Request: fold
Amino acid sequence: MGRAKVDLKELSKVFVEPLTGKRTEALRRVSLTIGENEIVCLLGPSGCGKSTVLRVVAGFETASEGDVLVDGVPVTGPGPDRGVVFQEQALFPWLSIYQNIIYGPKIRRLGRAAYEGLAERYIDVVGLRGFEHHYPHELSGGMKQRVAIARVLINSPAVLLMDEPFGALDAQTRSTMQEWLLDVWQAARPTILFITHDVDEAIFLADRVYVMTARPGRIKLEREVSLPRPRTLDVLTSSVFMHLKREILESIRSEVHAP
Amino acid sequence: MQVATLVGRAARAMAVPAALIAVWQLAVTAGYLPPRLMPSPWKVATTGYDFILGNPNSPGAYVFSGSFLKHAYISTLRVLNGFGLAVITGVTLGILLGVSRTLERFVDPVLQVIRPIPITAWLPLSIMWFGLGHRATLFLIFLGAFFPIVINTTIGVKVVDQRLIEAAQMLGTRPSQLFYRVLIPASLPSVLAGLRVGLGFAWVCLVVGEMTGVGTGLGSAIADARELFRIDLIMVGMLLVGFIGYASDRVIVYTFRRALRWSPNLFR
Reply:
């Protein structure tokens, strides 16, 4: 593991309802690190707060206690150094595919020369040559998520934050997208925090997997994934994969059945 | 679009009016309707022709001949003025109310109490404030168009998907850029709805205002026709207001068509 790009130290989050004052403890002293060029998957039962971890790193939520450092700098709000890919469709529907991809550099006034070449490259990376001037509603779910990833990568973020990005896709498309994401990673090696509840997906993608407990979310298990890269779907049937999957499933299952 | 489908569409749009006119003509011819209160459609059509184009055989035969353009021009200018003011103030206030819950809590109750007061109830007050005629009419048009624009814009801004705002933020959008980059484009379909309803009310209020004593304008033509007991001319005036209102709505819709071509269901 290289130096830590993202460092969560004893992160706690309590939500307080403004009207009733009702407190919900979402996260309790969550510590995790993501090294440079690393893919880290965060697994856990639904409602365990794994998305909250991502939203705090993104700067959409503030931590109740603890620190979030990205490249050693505390997170104070959302910014282009932390690109987010949401589960739901979040492209700007009034912008064409091309305009969606160049939105980041354009809003930061980087100048056409700075991003035009990059944009052309990313249109090829996402395989949407010929669709540049289409609108998001004309694209399939998988295409939209590829654009959502490209519009973030073009900002060269320190870390890519992916919140169950393939969760809404059908099984076939999901598996294609996982392979595609690994191809993209092989080429550009972005640092990735990937949230999912799909154990196969987590092991297939990750260098390291963290498993969280049910609410309040804590880190329960951390495992290296020693599968060699580049990976193909064949690894899904390897004994290393099976062994790890059994262990992680056990760990999650005990959380789901906990009273 | 294919010419054949255009013709077909026009034929379907004309079918019901054609049937109504036929029944009306038959009822007058058969004597079921008193011609003094209900002139035949043919009589209305010839009066309309004379009102719009004049009578080349006896120019200036009577005061309304060929005066349509003059009235329509003045009326359209009044609508543009009153409606334009309502668009500027309504959209601005709507965006602010949509963004700020605090401002909405202060202002919304006032708006909602003033809004149901009928435009005719405003008439005496506006005449006292602005005098009979032109300026009172502008005030009424503004008042009629303002509320639908404010309410639709406010709702449009409030229902903007929080995801899109977060997406813009994480891509590097500053708070001051959010208005132009996200809030305005995302609420545009709703703003369009407000403008269409508001423009409709603008024409309603125009006629109410013009009937209270201005010299020119379609409303004043209708009022004068009543004085002269020219029911055919009253009907011509009413229909022409309807047609111009329809045309103005088409102008707005086509203006927004390009800006909203991303919205899959709006212009099916």
User: Anything to note?
Assistant: The interface with chain A takes residues 161, 163-164, 166-173, 177, 181-182, 185-186, 188, 260-264 of chain B (CB under 8 Å). The two ends of chain B are 13 Å apart (CA to CA). Chain B has a mean pLDDT of 91.
